[in-house]
Design a protein that fits this description.
This protein has 306 residues and is α/β, with parallel strands linked by helices. Helices cover 49% and strands 12% of the residues. Strands 2-5-8-1-9 form a five-stranded parallel beta sheet. A two-stranded antiparallel ribbon has the order 3-4.
Length: 306
């Protein structure tokens, strides 16, 4: 596959389709602009709606390496950007002492050479392989603290990193950057200004059914429609965690493994753990509420003749 970015929105849609990612035109438009303008793409939305998958698809379809920085509370520069190999530096110092060759100024320069630098994801992303820049995924940025978020400003605006002992390292070929957030906290405006923004929402019924046909081809058509109809209605309920498309795929896969061809109340109750991830949500839906939702889905399908 070509590493070149697509020339228009339709080509961007085709690119996503090649990676089995079914997107609407608004997402493809924002992605195309981010690629064309060389700007990071900031994706926000609930967990499980397909934000991370976009970076993976870009890596696959553009034949570019994927560099992933998985964010978490307490993430620091040493884990995300770089650190010095202190053990090797100490060995270098001991060897210099043993040989009697102790020029402190030269030794101070020698131990801060590139070979002693341990490159973490952000620094790795600034290096192109054979002139091909990678896809940098900064996943779940909202899990980090504001201090690390501030550190990213230089990376996202100028595609460079400053290391005090060496100086500034800039990307000759800037990476394609995708930043995701589940919005557990607000990301600062200064970072958002450096990106093109898109809210990845839950898919409508038509797109969710198309995704299911693609991702779980062994699922019976009637069952797929019932699954999508059930989940679409489930998202109208006040639950702690609404199911995303990832849960839709998991549930359909589980039902297929059980050789189910249609949904029945007992089947729904026994497999809700593949769909809902909190016991309070399961207790709220299990039993009569699930039966009512399923009854509505089947009634609507009968009226539509599907």
């Amino acid at each position: 596959m070509s590493t070149a970015i697509p020339n228009d929105i339709d080509a961007t849609l085709d690119l996503l389709n090649q990676g089995d990612y079914i997107a609407d035109r608004s997402l493809a438009t924002t992605l195309f602009l981010a690629l064309k303008m060389g700007r990071p793409l900031f994706l926000e939305g609930e967990a499980g709606v397909g934000k991370t998958e976009i970076a993976k698809v870009l890596s696959e379809t553009l034949s570019r390496p994927l560099v992933r920085l998985q964010c978490y509370e307490g993430l620091d520069v040493a884990s995300a950007v770089y650190e010095w190999n202190y053990a090797r530096q100490m060995i270098e110092i001991r060897m210099a002492e043993a040989s009697g060759d102790i020029d402190r100024e030269r030794l101070g320069q020698d131990i801060f050479r590139d070979e002693f630098l341990i490159k973490r994801p952000l620094l790795q992303a600034l290096e192109a392989t054979d002139g091909v820049a990678p896809v940098l995924l900064i996943d779940e940025l909202d899990r980090t603290d504001e201090a690390f978020e501030a550190y990213l400003l230089e990376v996202l605006s100028d595609f460079q990193i400053t290391i005090p002992e060496i100086g500034t390292i800039a990307a000759e070929h800037p990476p394609i950057v995708v930043v995701t957030s589940n919005r557990t906290r607000e990301i600062h405006d200064a970072l958002k200004r450096r990106c093109l923004y898109y809210w990845v929402d839950y898919p409508d019924a038509e797109r969710e059914l198309a995704i299911l046909r693609l991702k779980v081809p062994g699922c019976e058509e009637t069952l797929s429609r019932q699954v999508v109809g059930f989940i679409q209605r489930l998202r109208e309920h006040d639950l702690f965690k609404l199911p995303g498309i990832a849960e839709t795929i998991d549930w359909a896969t589980a039902l297929t493994e059980l050789n189910k061809i249609v949904l029945e109340p007992d089947t729904v109750d026994n497999t809700l753990g593949a769909l809902l991830k909190y016991q309070d949500d399961i207790q709220k839906i299990q039993g009569s509420e699930a039966a009512l939702i399923l009854e509505d889905v089947k009634r609507e399908m009968a009226v539509a003749g599907t």
